[in-house]
Amino acid sequence: APREYRPPLSIIKFLELSLAVTCTTLHYYSFNDGDLVTGFLATGTFCGFIVILFTVMAGYLMKAHLHRRLSIFYSLLGCVCFLTSGVFIIEAWEHAFRTRTRDLAITKGSIAVINGVIFLMDTIFTFRERK
């Protein structure tokens, strides 16, 4: 029987999940992002990827592995969503008065951009893994 492909559950998934939870927490304390689109995009991205990443990890622990193409798709989608959310959040708050809420929002946007870059690295690593 052919050996099943089992990618290692990398520390990068835990990092992505931790940053998504951090963004969600900061989003709670700095929710007023100015326009509705930014708020919906950020909320959907942060909460949606917490669910996706938690499910991927739970599947790994139950030995129900995610197909490589699907893993690449989720990582690429995470990259695009987190980068877009981060840029929109920073753009919405960069000219606001310097308050605690603004500082939290800029931090949230910056962490979202960082998580987008980590998702891009995850995409590249997954793509380059041996089959």
TrEMBL record:
Transmembrane feature ranges: 12-30, 36-60, 72-93, 105-127
DUF7775 domain residues: 10-98
InterPro entries per the UniProt record, alphabetical: DUF7775, Ssk
Keywords: Membrane, Transmembrane, Transmembrane helix
GO biological process: septate junction assembly
PANTHER family given in the database record: GEO12064P1 (PTHR36692:SF2), PROTEIN SNAKESKIN (PTHR36692)
Protein name: AGAP000963-PA
Classification lineage: Eukaryota, Metazoa, Ecdysozoa, Arthropoda, Hexapoda
